[in-house]
Write a structure and sequence with these properties.
Length: 198
């Protein structure tokens, strides 16, 4: 009987050790990717019963936002070219009829990573984006703060060329390319800007 109990205890200890080894191995090899996936889930998820469109949390990685898809949570302004439009979380065709949309696969202002915004290249939307110059300021006014970005580059790319994981907070605002094409195209005209201190 004593040998049976010892055998069971040894089996249980082996199982615990194996589980610990597997857990440590997974966290070492895929921990970064799991953390990134959780961040994306946090960006697009909402809790039942939230009375506000924007929920702010202060986590270990700093500011985290939970926005309701399709909600307006601020404005984007480019004073140098007279752009002043509502900013929505999400970028469906329905949303882009009313203003500038934010990609749900990227981050929000204040989270320290890349924010991706886009809109149609019509006169009422982002056609004036083509006139933006280096060092122009782009303002994003949100329900939780104002963020200033200085333009450092403009180029024609595809959506796949935009990097999301960056070491500092940056902004990419884009519209259709070429300038007079209002339909869907493979190429986009992107304006790049970095967060600057007020």
């Amino acid at each position: 009987m004593k040998n049976k109990v010892i055998s069971i205890i040894q089996s249980l200890l082996c199982c615990v050790i194996y589980i610990a080894i597997i857990y440590v191995t997974v966290m070492l090899l895929a921990g970064k990717y799991i953390s990134e996936a959780n961040s994306y889930i946090d960006l697009i998820s909402t809790k039942e019963g939230d009375t506000q469109n924007t929920k702010l949390e202060l986590g270990t990685n700093g500011l985290k936002l939970r926005l309701e898809y399709g909600s307006t949570y601020g404005r984007i302004t480019v004073p140098s070219v007279s752009i002043d439009l509502p900013l929505y979380f999400g970028n469906s065709l329905e949303i882009l009829k009313d203003g500038v949309g934010q990609s749900t696969r990227a981050y929000c202002p204040g989270e320290g990573k890349t924010i991706i915004l886009n809109g149609h290249n019509t006169d009422k939307m982002l056609k004036k984006l083509y006139k933006v110059s280096k060092n122009d300021i782009i303002l994003i006014n949100t329900e939780y703060g104002t963020y200033r970005y200085a333009v450092y580059d403009m180029k024609v790319i595809t959506e796949k060329d935009i990097e999301i994981e960056t070491d500092s907070e940056s902004l990419v605002v884009y519209t259709n390319y070429p300038e007079n094409d209002v339909g869907s195209t493979n190429r986009i005209y992107a304006v790049y800007a970095n967060l600057v201190n007020n």
